[in-house]
Write a structure and sequence with these properties.
The complex is a heterodimer of chains A (about 110) and B (about 110). Chain A is mainly β and about 110 residues long. Chain A contains no helices and eleven strands. Classes of the chains: A mainly beta (about 110), B mainly beta (about 110).
Chain lengths: ~110, ~110
């Protein structure tokens, strides 16, 4: 039982490059989330998926796209990376009755 | 914008002392949760308190909730060096929207041996 896994752990991109962050959960949760964490800003929700087949924008969706591939997997894509997207990205799953969330270990992304 | 505001932003104490962190929020909630984040790791759920509860305990953790003041506090008793981490409150809004939580900016706790 791995919980929530994320790949890659670290990534360096040049401005304008694209990449996809992968997330998978094995807890049979319906909901999945992508956050970014920046110093002094706490966690900000980028996109979420309340159930398989649905996705919705969060607080800071600009510059990102997501795909809920199946119940287990939720990917985040940066089409044209910008230095402002340098951050730590966390995937989470959960959203049951208590809405408790389970987090992955994070991806540290640097855009130069 | 973030609903939760945490106070203090940073707290440094000696081992054995108690640590108290506060969280304020703006809208009606279903529940309020506290999470812990060790340096370089993901967040881990600590404790949840429902809107109709006033106090909850779990081991050395005590959480209070005052819905009239829209505030909560987390008390860690007899702190240990291993408690050094960032602590975040998260509110579950009354109207569920995809199970979303709104996180505060966190309190950075340092416990010195």
């Amino acid at each position: 039982n791995a919980g929530v896994t994320q790949t890659p752990k670290f990534q360096v991109l040049k401005t304008g490059q694209s990449m996809t962050l992968q997330c998978a959960q094995d807890m049979n949760h319906n909901s999945m989330y992508w956050y970014r964490q920046d110093p002094g800003m706490g966690l900000r929700l980028i996109y979420y998926s309340a159930s398989e087949g649905t996705t919705d924008k969060g607080e800071v969706p600009n510059g990102y796209n997501v795909s809920r591939l199946n119940k287990r997997e939720f990917s985040l894509r940066l089409e044209s990376a910008a230095p402002s997207q340098t951050s730590v990205y966390f995937c989470a799953s959960g959203g049951g009755q208590t809405r408790e969330q389970y987090f992955g270990p994070g991806t540290r992304l640097t855009v130069t | 914008s973030q609903q939760g505001e945490e106070d203090p932003q940073a707290l440094s104490i000696q081992e054995g002392e108690n640590a108290t962190m506060n969280c304020s929020y703006k809208t009606s909630i279903n529940n309020l949760q506290w999470y812990r984040q060790n340096s370089g790791r993901g967040l881990v759920h600590l404790i949840l308190i429902r809107s109709n509860e006033r106090e909850k305990h779990s081991g050395r953790l005590r959480v209070t909730l005052d819905t009239s003041k829209k505030s909560s506090s987390l008390l860690i008793t007899a702190s240990r060096a291993a408690d050094t981490a960032s602590y975040f409150c998260a509110t579950a809004p009354y109207y569920n929207q995809g199970g979303k939580l709104i996180f505060g900016q966190g309190t950075e706790l340092s416990v010195k041996p």
